[in-house]
Fold this protein.
Amino acid sequence: MSFVQCHELGGLGPMVLGAVQLGLNYGVANKAGQPSRESAHEILLAAWQHGVRAIDTAQAYGESEEIIGEHLERYPEHNFHIFSKISPGVDHRDATAILNAARSSCQRIARPLASLMMHNADALHLWDEGLGQAMKRCLDAGFAETLGVSIYTPEQFLAALQIPELRVIQAPFNVLDRRLLDSGLLDRALDSGRVIVLRSVYLQGLLLMDADKLPAHMGFAEEDVRRWESLCASHACAKTLAAMQYVRHAVPRALLVIGCERTDQLLANLSLLMSPDFPAGMKEAIEALKMPDERVINPSLWPKL
Ligand SMILES: NC(=O)c1ccc[n+]([C@@H]2O[C@H](COP(=O)([O-])OP(=O)(O)OC[C@H]3O[C@@H](n4cnc5c(N)ncnc54)[C@H](OP(=O)(O)O)[C@@H]3O)[C@@H](O)[C@H]2O)c1
């Protein structure tokens, strides 16, 4: 069954496994580093066994695609729907480079992608200058079922919405970054039949950190993290549960991409996702939280160590 049919029938479930953690040392709170190859395989196996049916990866995520490919070779019956993104380093004016990039992802995972996505949304302005044709040729060649894009800002989201061929849009959304909801863009996209995949439910782990223990280079986020921490404490709600359930309640039609670097995190996240517990009044309290500056909510602006 195609990924779109599966999604429309509710067969994908709400969670997409985020696979950047499998291929790279990732995350602001990360102490353990990239999981070993065996741990990465354990995460993929546990994900399938617990009903996860979609994976988000990218050519830029180190060994992530390769590890997924190894898993599918071991378990060909694991019919994951895989979204992958073209490396931002590929020349988006060069149709052959785009086709070669798409082909190389398919070769690594040894099957067509559910969605071939652009990782570099700034290149969307090239859509009518050959990029759109090149992406559509990737569909004709059988490299993917759909096309999509991953965005960072509401402006990029709006640009994606102008291109009907982009059926899948991945975007950040969490308790501190509610810009796409407030602007009405999420509803507009969902109403037009797009598949919306939300990431950064934990803001790369920042929302789960102790405000008192932020590393020095993240000090600029302390006040916002503390405000969020106090709100969770006043509702006697764990930060993990509040962060996850807020996104579920605010945008119930979206898929959530959640990155895990250990099997226990995966299982914890699945149970948080299914939990019926979300304190009354918490959604409204979160929506009354002051939204931080973009430098706090956009990880691509954080200082690199
Ligand atoms: N431009 C793009 O397209 C783009 C950009 C970024 C990410 N992504 C995708 O989105 C996925 C998710 O990444 P994200 O940035 O959105 O991260 P996130 O889901 O907001 O946070 C993930 C981090 O939170 C921590 N964590 C996860 N579950 C936890 C639990 N139950 N308890 C405690 N800590 C937990 C882990 O870090 P620690 O254990 O280290 O604390 C993990 O690395 C990635 O895997 C990737 O597939 C896409």
